[in-house]
Write a structure and sequence with these properties.
- By secondary structure, the chain is α/β, with parallel strands linked by helices.
- The protein is built from twelve helices and 19 strands.
- The chain has helices spanning about 105-110, 125-135, 155-180, 190-195, 220-230, 250-260, 290-295, 355, 365-375, 380, 395, 405-419; strands at about 10, 15-20, 30, 40, 45, 50-55, 60-70, 75-80, 115, 125, 140-145, 180-190, 205-210, 245, 265-270, 280-285, 305-310, 315-320, 330-335.
- The strands form five sheets. The chain has a six-stranded mixed β-sheet, with helices on one face. It has a four-stranded antiparallel β-sheet with strand order 2-8-7-4, with no helix packed on it.
- α1 (about 105-110) crosses α3 and α3 (about 155-180) packs across α6.
- The longest helix is centred in the middle third of the chain and has 24 residues, at about 155-180.
């Protein structure tokens, strides 16, 4: 499917953007501008101690209201009506020689430009917060996933296809900031041969090839297992779940932030589905609503039944077209009724499929019984919820269509807060 995409395109400029004030997991940014105030493209409009949000367009802030977000939550958002001239769009910016900058200066740039690590769409985090904890490690490896963890999605793979050089440089920038022992690029075996990529021991750069079509290979545990089986004996790097796992999107943003001094103002999104006339890979301004996207694509070719954000396996379904694009959105699929599945939740039939298919060996059905029927579960067993990698496989095999993965995530969040 990737070969069907020959280039990326910029989406139409929106007349209005809707900017949720929570763009990372559990990180709420407070507005630093007032309603009625004019803003420039790239100006900071909200901030917290660990993150910032920039205006993707020039214009006037007209409202602060509650909106439905891509993750299914309702958050506060700033509404900005566009007018005025752009500071970044269509402008040529001089490339900065980042090699001459100190690690501290580079890290500050990532904070100021609002870079978010979206290796996991369900748990996006500010890069600089991840860097701080990573710096405390003695052995440090940066693991770069260049494909999608959700095999029903091709967006990370498209980013790699179009922007490999920028992603490669972004990884080297991150390695300098963190003083990493090395970089491990993880991608398809065929892609390694096609690009003629070879390990470079002097620079500490290595390539791990695997079957990217196998589900769970794109998650941390899948990458670690593949590395231990095929590379650990011949490679000086150590790889564990505590290393810096990052994706192509994040490294592309790091490259632009450091080399061109650009904040995160847009996101490359793969729009697909049989309800729209054509699939495409668009560079969309943050805050652009799905309704505006559909208008640009020529409306619906078939009656819409479901909208899936970030893939059928790891993503989630939303029920509104007024949802805005945020930093953690990678793909949107518009499906007609013929391609939608039954969404009715039934009673558990005790088939055991969720346990058999769980890649980390937990029992999703028992955790579900604990959460919704208040059944007695030993504390040690309850802690197994923290092993969940949010792959969504239990959901895909559940004949009763119980939202097992979502329930386990709720339990995990509760356990985190208790700690």
């Amino acid at each position: 499917m990737i070969q069907n995409y020959k280039h990326t395109e910029n989406a139409f400029l929106p007349k209005t953007v809707v900017m949720p004030l929570m763009q990372e997991k559990d990180v709420y940014c407070k507005p630093v501008i007032k309603i009625g105030e004019e803003v420039q493209e790239g100006q900071i409009i909200a901030s917290s101690d660990i993150s910032v949000i920039h205006s993707p367009i020039p214009g006037t802030v007209t409202d602060l209201c509650s909106v439905n977000c891509p993750d299914g939550k309702i958050e506060k958002a700033l509404i900005i009506n566009m007018h005025g001239s752009f500071s970044y769009l269509g402008k040529k910016h001089k490339e900065e020689e980042w090699q001459n900058l100190s690690p501290a200066s580079l890290e500050q740039k990532l904070h100021d430009k609002g870079i978010v690590n979206v290796f996991s769409c369900t748990k996006s985090v500010p890069v600089t917060e991840q860097i701080k904890s990573f710096l405390r490690k003695k052995s440090k490896t940066i693991v770069v996933r260049l494909f999608d963890e959700d095999t029903m999605r091709i967006t990370d793979s498209l980013m790699t296809n179009f922007y490999f050089d920028q992603i490669y440089q972004g990884a080297k920038i991150l390695a300098k900031i963190t003083d990493a022992n090395g970089i491990l690029f993880v991608l398809n075996n065929k892609e390694i041969k096609k690009r003629k990529l070879e390990n470079d021991e002097k620079q500490g750069i290595y390539y791990l090839g695997l079957d990217t079509k196998t589900f769970t290979n794109g998650f941390k545990h899948g990458i670690i297992n593949a590395y231990n089986k095929s590379m650990s004996r011949n490679c000086p790097l150590s790889v564990s779940r505590y290393d810096f796992f990052v994706d192509s999107y994040t490294l592309y943003d790091i490259y632009n932030a450091v080399v061109f001094d650009e904040p995160v103002l847009s996101r490359h999104i793969n729009f697909t589905g049989n309800s729209i006339p054509v699939s495409c890979f668009l560079n969309v301004k943050l805050g652009y609503t799905l309704r505006d996207v559909v208008k640009q694509l020529g409306g619906f070719a078939k009656k819409l039944s479901a909208v899936i954000i970030n893939g059928k396996l790891c993503g989630n379904s939303v029920n509104s077209l007024d949802i805005p694009i945020t930093k953690y959105v990678k793909s949107v699929e518009f499906l007609s009724k013929n391609n939608s599945t039954d969404s009715q939740v039934y009673s558990c039939i005790k088939c055991g499929a969720c346990r058999y298919n769980c890649p980390v060996g937990i029992a999703p059905d028992i955790l579900y019984e604990y959460a919704y029927k208040k059944s007695n579960v030993p504390e040690d067993f309850l802690m197994t919820a923290t092993m969940c990698i949010n792959c969504g496989r239990c959901n895909t095999v559940c004949q009763a269509r119980i939202p097992l993965c979502q329930v386990i995530t709720m339990i995990k969040n509760k356990l985190d807060k208790n700690e």
